[in-house]
């Protein structure tokens, strides 16, 4: 009888655990937290996890389930690079997996009706990194007191939260469920939540309320403002609530690691979040690594340090041409180096500024024949051979072959090397006169000196520009690269002083039809090919200028209809049409894409894929490959 | 005054005797023609003799002269044009010149190389093919250029065959010949610093000269000004200056501006030296004599005082010029100096500043060699010139 009772008791305990964690197997306590758990400072693993944790089945992903411990060292250039931790950590409401499909992550499930009603169900028992429960109250706080709070948001919502200028209706259904309802479809919403730099819909209300004037007693708030030497409560709240760049070590987070170092510092330590919501199939709470250490230093030394094994995971600040050196260093047995593909539409693209001020240049730049001629004059094969050992793909600035939207005609559009055709086009425009140096003369008699401004940040860019300058000289165009600085360049482009600038092509070139085509339509003032037209659509026609090219207007109209499109087929159709217009009109002049990015990691670090796509958007660099599942094998 | 004195009456002209015989200053001590040559030689001639005895300085002087001549004809000397790229010879290592093949004398030639890519580590390899022999030709046709911007030419001092180009010092990441780039780089590196030196010299001598000669209040004002200028930290000042340069300026204009400003700040040390020398020299009797004879200040400083410390000036100049050459390298390192497409030794070295070069392509650091040689040569030359400037010592 006693035995029976005991058995029942055990069963009920087991049952309780099962219910609480919805977990059939046994949960394994993290060794580095055992002491704290034993001392009662931290609840046991079962109470730290939500009832339904996100189970990552590594075997199914073709990876190895691991074990806890170790620290991942990374090298960074500047203090603000700690934002990479938010990118790499990649805990979002919904995330892209390694196949770039949207899956629920922080939320247990989500439900979309008619592309306009979004219902999120949170995980019951989910907690912030300080142990406080994470509930819909935090979303309510974020929505009502931060995102739509006029003083904090500056009076306007992020564009992706607006449909035809209208914000959604926000409802809290219960402690775990929230709903956002727009009057029309908003396909931008989920991608914006899954973005590497997302819209943060959850903020730790219990912590942030002390900095908010609706909650805090004015006298105490005054004292806090004075203590932080902020200007006003707005500045104080923004500073304390920064989630993308985690500068405030006290801010609770849902990320796998939380910052423990207060800037300024040269070394940032990110400790594991003991309440993180993912577990592996063996019942080990993720992340595996106990901490991440980011050291700031000169970026020029990072390849050398990586070769010496001073980093455990590194791709930032390492270039393709470092690969040979790193491969040599690999022989010493400390590191491994693999080549991933980059996910940009073009490694480097020339951006003709359609809003240039100078009337002579404006007419030229807006003439599609001129843009096509420049594109045809570039010998992309040579660029590929000289700089990328033939491993890249000569292409217009368009989607990669990995994207379901890929068509060869986009890649090939005006990207063949055909100087004769280019000359023909330039003659056709009327640029037939040449000076003594064989440089064509513009209609006003000036030689065609095409000044191309660049941010002056990489030697790779200046090498490419040097090659391109040679190619263009063959068709009578003298290109003069001019290095300046990122911000100066952007300002000059916006004010119309720059004729042409240099940037990378489409940021996200492994797009699916469900991702927004904003990059190839006028949508923002920081677009280098049509800043004023972009501003026009960004501000809903309040600022900027209305496009004067029919094709640009068409792109804007198509982008609008993409948002309203209900089915995937329709979106695919719209995307294809836009890509076709964009590449045929050569609104940016691509060079090569699909270049390789060396990824260096410690040879003890497991689960880093040998092949992958290294892209900021989508994918958040290592984010889509889940850095929390990387672990250290024994010594 | 007693009567019968040999002296005339007061006020009466003093009677005196002038010999009509030709004056011979050496009547007491006769000089042999050989001695005459030495003792009657002008200062310049003496300096030249003394300089000639400093063999190292002469060699260095000839070397520097050769370098300065070479910058006039670098299109001809360089086997390739500055920006000629060789797609099939990227990061090609230096090739060596051979004279004998299979024990037989062939004359200067190079062996062929063939590009092979090691796909394992993405390295370009250039194994030598000893079956293929390409003799080196002289005064051959190669890349076209416009000599002195006047007439077109295509002759080069030496080259191998077109299908097998020769890279004595290897090539860089775009397949450009390092040797040619070093030869072209001399053009900027050897000349651009001279402007700053010339400016700082004229300022130093004039301002230091005025302060030292007049002394007193003038000296005080100048000294305090120098102290202020010297207390400005150099690198933050360069950074600030780089920030205020208009972005629309071309890199070469910016560099000229920076050397000018460096020159405007660099004169202080020299001015102090000139001042202290002058303070000492202006008390000399020959200066008093010149003053009594009514010489102008500028003549006294320029004709009588400055030659007195010429040796010091020359020493300073020969140290300043290499400092400027090194300064160009340092500025390029800080990202304030020249930037490609302008090519100087500093730019070439700045491009060589990465781990790839150290580990895999060490020949890209070769521009260090001419920098070291030129700086050493300037120092030895300065040594010789300083001795020579004081031939009476």
Question: How would you describe what is shown here?
Answer:
The complex is a heterodimer of chains A (635) and B (393). Among the domains of chain A are: 2-52, no CATH class; 103-244, Dipeptide-binding Protein, domain 1; 349-587, Dipeptide-binding Protein, Domain 3 (Dipeptide-binding Protein, domain 3, Roll), CATH 3.10.105.10. Helices cover 32% and strands 16% of the residues of chain A. Chain A has a four-stranded mixed β-sheet with strand order 2-12-10-9, with no helix packed on it. A four-stranded antiparallel β-sheet of chain A has the order 5-6-8-7, covered by helices on one side. In chain A, strands 13-21-14-23 form a four-stranded mixed β-sheet. Chain B has helices spanning 33-39, 43-53, 55-70, 74-77, 178-214, 216-230, 234-244, 251-281, 285-292, 297-305, 310-334, 345-351, 355-359, 368-389; strands spanning 98-101, 104-113, 116-118, 123-125, 128-135, 137-147, 151-159. In chain B, helix 3 (55-70) packs across helix 14 (368-389). The mean pLDDT of chain B is 82. Chain A binds chain B through residues 300-301, 303-304, 307, 320-325, 327-328, 382, 385-387, 389, 391, 456, 459, 462-463, 466-467, 470, 481-485, 488, 492, and chain B through 83, 85, 87, 90, 117, 120-124, 173-175, 247, 251, 339-341, 351, 353-356, 358-360.
At a glance:
The complex is a heterodimer of chains A (635) and B (393). With 635 residues, chain A is an alpha+beta fold.
* CATH fold-level topology of the largest domain in chain B: MetI-like fold
What does the radius of gyration of chain A come to?
Answer: 27 Å
What is the second-level CATH architecture of the domain at 349-587 in chain A?
A: Roll
Catalogue the unreliable spans of chain A: 1-21
The largest β sheet of chain A comes out as:
4 strands, mixed
Order of helices and strands of chain B: HHHHEEEEEEEHHHHHHHHHH
Give the largest interface pair and sizes: A-B, 33 and 26 residues
* Strands of chain B, count: 7
Oligomeric form = heterodimer
> What top-tier CATH class of the largest domain in chain B fits best?
Mainly Alpha
What coarse outline of chain A follows from CA principal-axis ratios? globular
What is the CATH C level class of the domain at 349-587 in chain A, in words?
Alpha Beta
CATH fold descriptor of the domain at 349-587 in chain A = Dipeptide-binding Protein, domain 3
Q: Indicate the low-confidence ranges of chain B by residue numbers.
A: none
Q: Give me the number of helical elements of chain B.
A: 14
């Amino acid at each position: 009888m006693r035995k029976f009772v005991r058995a029942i008791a055990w069963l009920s305990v087991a049952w309780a655990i099962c219910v609480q964690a919805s977990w059939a197997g046994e949960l394994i306590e993290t060794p580095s937290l055992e002491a704290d758990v034993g001392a009662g400072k931290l609840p046991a693993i079962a109470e730290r996890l939500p009832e339904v944790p996100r189970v990552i089945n590594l075997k199914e992903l073709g990876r190895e389930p691991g074990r806890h411990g170790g620290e991942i060292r990374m090298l960074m250039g500047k203090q603000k690079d700690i934002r990479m931790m938010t990118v790499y950590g990649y805990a979002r409401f919904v995330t892209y997996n390694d196949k770039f499909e949207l899956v629920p992550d922080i939320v247990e499930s989500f439900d979309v009706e008619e592309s306009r009603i979004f219902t999120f169900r949170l995980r019951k028992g989910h907690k912030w990194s300080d142990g406080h429960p994470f509930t819909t109250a935090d979303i309510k706080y974020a929505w009502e007191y931060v995102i739509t709070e006029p003083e904090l948001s500056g009076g306007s919502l992020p564009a992706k939260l607006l449909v035809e200028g209208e914000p959604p209706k926000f409802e809290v259904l219960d402690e775990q469920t929230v709903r956002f309802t727009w009057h029309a479809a908003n396909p931008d919403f989920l991608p914006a939540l899954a973005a590497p730099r997302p819209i943060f819909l959850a903020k730790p209300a219990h912590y942030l309320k002390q900095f908010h004037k609706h909650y805090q007693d004015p006298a105490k708030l005054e004292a806090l403002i004075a203590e932080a030497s902020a200007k006003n409560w707005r500045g104080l709240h923004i500073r304390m609530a920064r989630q993308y760049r985690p500068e405030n070590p006290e801010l609770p987070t849902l990320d796998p690691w939380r910052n423990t170092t207060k800037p300024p510092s040269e070394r940032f330590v990110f400790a594991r979040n003991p309440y993180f919501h993912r577990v592996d199939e063996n019942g080990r709470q993720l992340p595996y690594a106990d901490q991440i250490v980011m050291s700031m230093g000169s970026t020029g030394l990072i390849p050398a340090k990586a070769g010496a094994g001073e980093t455990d995971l590194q791709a930032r600040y390492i270039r393709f041409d470092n690969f040979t050196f790193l491969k040599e260093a690999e022989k010493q047995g400390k590191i491994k180096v693999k080549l991933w593909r980059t996910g940009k539409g073009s490694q480097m693209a020339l951006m003709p500024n359609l809003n240039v001020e100078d009337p002579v240049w404006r007419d030229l730049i807006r003439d599609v024949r001129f843009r096509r001629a420049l594109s045809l004059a570039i010998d992309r094969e040579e660029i590929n051979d000289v700089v990328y050992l033939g491993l890249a793909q000569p292409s217009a600035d368009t989607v990669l072959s990995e994207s379901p939207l890929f068509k060869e005609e986009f890649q090939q559009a005006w990207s063949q090397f055909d100087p004769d055709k280019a000359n023909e086009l330039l003659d056709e425009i009327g640029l037939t006169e040449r000076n003594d140096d064989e440089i064509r003369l513009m209609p006003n008699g000036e030689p065609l000196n095409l000044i191309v401004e660049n941010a002056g940040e990489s030697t790779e860019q200046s090498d490419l520009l040097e090659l391109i300058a040679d190619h263009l000289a063959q068709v009578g165009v003298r290109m003069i690269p001019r290095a300046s600085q990122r911000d100066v360049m952007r300002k000059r482009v916006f004010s119309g002083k720059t004729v042409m600038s240099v940037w990378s092509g489409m940021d996200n070139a492994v797009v699916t039809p469900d991702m927004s085509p904003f990059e190839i339509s006028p949508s923002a003032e920081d677009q280098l090919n049509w800043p004023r037209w972009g501003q026009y659509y960004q501000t809903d026609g309040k600022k900027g200028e209305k496009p004067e090219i029919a094709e640009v207007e068409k792109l804007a109209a198509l982008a609008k209809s993409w948002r309203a499109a209900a089915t995937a087929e329709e979106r695919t159709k719209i995307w294809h049409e836009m890509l076709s217009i964009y590449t045929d009109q050569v609104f940016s002049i691509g060079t090569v894409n699909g270049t390789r990015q060396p990824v260096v990691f410690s040879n003890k670090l497991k689960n880093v894929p040998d092949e992958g796509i290294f892209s900021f958007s989508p994918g958040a660099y290592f984010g889509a490959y889940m850095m929390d599942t990387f672990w250290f094998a024994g010594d | 005054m007693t009567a019968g004195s040999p002296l005339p009456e007061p006020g009466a002209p003093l009677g005196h005797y002038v010999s009509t015989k030709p004056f011979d200053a050496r009547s007491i001590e006769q000089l042999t023609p050989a001695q005459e040559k030495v003792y009657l030689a002008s200062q310049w001639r003496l300096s030249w003799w003394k300089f000639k005895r400093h063999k190292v300085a002469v060699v260095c002087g000839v070397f520097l002269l050769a370098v300065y001549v070479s910058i006039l004809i670098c299109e001809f000397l360089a086997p390739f044009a500055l920006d000629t790229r060789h797609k099939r010879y990227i990061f090609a290592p230096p090739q060596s010149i051979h004279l004998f093949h299979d024990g037989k004398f062939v004359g200067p030639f190079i062996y062929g190389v063939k590009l092979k890519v090691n796909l394992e580590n993405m390295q370009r390899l250039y194994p030598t093919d000893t079956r293929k022999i390409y003799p080196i030709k002289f005064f051959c046709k190669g890349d076209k250029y416009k000599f002195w911007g006047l007439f077109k030419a295509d002759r080069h001092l030496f080259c191998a065959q077109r299908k097998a180009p020769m890279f004595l010092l290897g090539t860089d990441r775009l397949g450009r010949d390092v040797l040619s780039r070093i030869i072209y780089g001399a053009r900027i590196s050897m000349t651009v610093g001279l402007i700053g030196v010339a400016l700082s010299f004229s300022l130093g001598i004039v301002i230091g000269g005025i302060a030292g000669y007049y002394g007193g209040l003038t000296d005080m004002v100048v000294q305090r000004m120098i102290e202020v200028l010297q207390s400005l930290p150099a690198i933050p000042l360069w950074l600030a200056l780089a920030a205020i340069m208009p972005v629309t300026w071309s890199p070469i204009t910016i560099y000229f501006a920076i050397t000018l400003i460096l020159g405007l700040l660099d004169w202080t040390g020299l001015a102090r030296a000139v001042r202290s020398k002058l303070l000492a020299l202006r008390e000399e009797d020959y200066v008093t004599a010149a003053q009594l004879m009514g010489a102008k200040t500028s003549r006294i400083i320029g004709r009588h005082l400055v030659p007195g410390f010429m040796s010091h000036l020359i020493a300073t100049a020969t140290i300043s010029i290499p400092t400027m050459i090194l300064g160009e390298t340092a500025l390029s390192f800080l990202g304030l100096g020249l930037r490609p497409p302008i090519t100087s030794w500093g730019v070439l070295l700045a491009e060589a500043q990465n781990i790839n070069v150290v580990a895999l392509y060490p020949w890209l650091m070769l521009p260090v060699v001419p920098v070291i040689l030129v700086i050493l040569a300037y120092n030895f030359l300065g040594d010789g010139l300083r001795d020579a400037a004081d031939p009476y010592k």
